[in-house]
Structures are given as C-alpha cells and as structure tokens.
TrEMBL record, chain A:
<protein>
    <submittedName>
        <fullName>Glucocorticoid receptor-like (DNA-binding domain)</fullName>
    </submittedName>
</protein>
<dbReference type="GO" id="GO:0005763">
    <property type="term" value="C:mitochondrial small ribosomal subunit"/>
</dbReference>
<dbReference type="Pfam" id="PF00253">
    <property type="entry name" value="Ribosomal_S14"/>
</dbReference>
<dbReference type="InterPro" id="IPR001209">
    <property type="entry name" value="Ribosomal_uS14"/>
</dbReference>
<dbReference type="GO" id="GO:0006412">
    <property type="term" value="P:translation"/>
</dbReference>
<dbReference type="InterPro" id="IPR018271">
    <property type="entry name" value="Ribosomal_uS14_CS"/>
</dbReference>
<keyword id="KW-0687">Ribonucleoprotein</keyword>
<dbReference type="GO" id="GO:0003735">
    <property type="term" value="F:structural constituent of ribosome"/>
</dbReference>
<keyword id="KW-0675">Receptor</keyword>
From TrEMBL, chain B:
<dbReference type="GO" id="GO:0005840">
    <property type="term" value="C:ribosome"/>
</dbReference>
<keyword id="KW-0689">Ribosomal protein</keyword>
<dbReference type="Pfam" id="PF08293">
    <property type="entry name" value="MRP-S33"/>
</dbReference>
<dbReference type="GO" id="GO:1990904">
    <property type="term" value="C:ribonucleoprotein complex"/>
</dbReference>
<dbReference type="GO" id="GO:0005739">
    <property type="term" value="C:mitochondrion"/>
</dbReference>
<keyword id="KW-0687">Ribonucleoprotein</keyword>
<keyword id="KW-0496">Mitochondrion</keyword>
<dbReference type="InterPro" id="IPR013219">
    <property type="entry name" value="Ribosomal_mS33"/>
</dbReference>
<feature type="region of interest" description="Disordered">
    <location>
        <begin position="84"/>
        <end position="104"/>
    </location>
</feature>
Length: 113, 104
C-alpha cells in the first residue's frame, strides 16, 4: 500500500519491492502500536462493559493490515530473501555463509573438530 | 484453627501496599499485562539499515575545499545513454503539451 511508503527513499541496504513493503509495514506498525495496545487492553479488561469491549474488538480488526505485527517478516538485508534468515545477522543462510567465510562477521568462524 | 477469610484479605492488601502490586483478590482479568508490555515498534522499525549519506551530499561536502569527487556509477550511466542515443536507440522524448491537449 503506497500510502504507507516513505515519500523519500530511506533504505541503505539491498532493496527490492518486498523489502520496501516490509519496511513500510514496520513503520506503520510502529506508528499504530500505542493505539493497538490500548484497544487490546480494553478487550482483555473483563471489568469493562461488554459493549465497549465488542466495539474495541471491531476497531482492532478493522485497522489496516499493514499495522499488524504479524505482517512483518524478517528479510535478508543483502539479497532480500524471505526464507532461511538468521535473525541475529539479518541475513539469509547462504549470504551468512559467504560473509562468514570472507571474515566479515566478527566472532564467527567455521566449526571444525 | 482456620483463619477467617477477612483476615487473610487484610494480609493480602497489606502485602500489595508494601510491594506496590495491584490488589485483586478475585483474580479478575483486568488486562494489566497488556499495559505492562513494552513497545516493540522502535526495535522492529530499525531492522533495515537507513540511508545515511548520498553521493550528492558527499560531493557537496568537498566542494568548498575545491576537491572534485567523481561519481563513477553516474558517469557510466551517462556514457551508456550517450552510446544508445548515438545509435538512435535512446528513450523517446516526452510529448509536448499541444499533443496532450489534442488527444484529450
């Protein structure tokens, strides 16, 4: 959804449309997080009237899907791949291997015993 | 030797006051655990590295010192376009305003 996209390109890593999309989802979630948490609190609070809680449930489900944390997926910052990501390094497994063998990742070395 | 419930509740209330916890003897679900959660938006939004300095800014920073920095990528691109145009394979020119009005 282009309305969530940054007006000025602001990424410094490898970019493709999937990465731009994921990045805008992250920013949309960050902006909407307090509202989401407030609604979640109202829903979970059993001391509030049932009507208020039902309205809060509706509002939460009607928020844009880009503001949902489950839409966010870690992607490789070197190749944009969405699967096989080592989240500690933000890289796909193959890019991680290449970088580690090239000695670009401090403290990482090939196991041998 | 059973202790009355009221006395136990008093003890609980005193304990809650001491340790600054909420007094909720019925165990009602008040949703406070949502309020206790930390916001994870900033951590998630900073996943991808942001663009810091562009080549243009870099060139501008060195301009007052009268140092010229060549943007090799940009030069390659312009050369490529020039070569295409020389062969007559370049991008077509933008159509003018008049033609636009005619089509409408």
């Amino acid at each position: 959804m282009s309305m969530f996209r940054a007006k000025k390109f602001d990424l410094g890593c490898y970019t493709n449309i999937q990465i731009i999309r994921d990045h805008s989802k992250r920013k949309a979630f960050e902006a909407a997080e307090p509202e989401r948490q407030a609604l979640r609190y109202i829903i979970r609070n059993t001391t509030l009237p049932a009507r208020t809680r039902a309205i809060a449930q509706l509002q939460l489900t009607q928020m844009h899907c880009y503001t949902r944390p489950t839409q966010i997926r870690n992607r490789c910052i070197l190749g944009g791949k969405g699967r096989g990501i080592l989240s500690d390094f933000k890289m796909s497994r193959f890019n991680f291997r290449l970088q580690a063998l090239a000695g670009n990742l401090p403290g990482v070395k090939k196991a041998s015993w | 030797m059973s202790i009355p419930r009221a006395r136990l509740l008093d003890l609980m209330r005193a304990r809650c006051e001491l340790f600054a916890t909420t007094f909720n003897p019925e165990g009602l679900r008040t949703g406070n655990k949502i309020l206790r959660q930390r916001l994870k938006g900033p951590a998630l939004a900073s996943y991808y590295p942001r663009k810091r300095v562009t080549f243009g800014q870099f060139q501008k920073a060195f301009a007052p010192l009268e140092l010229e920095v060549e943007d090799e990528k940009e030069q390659d691109r312009l050369e490529h376009i020039a070569a295409l145009k020389a062969r007559g394979k370049g991008a077509p020119k933008k159509r003018k305003e008049q033609q636009k009005n005619k089509k409408k």
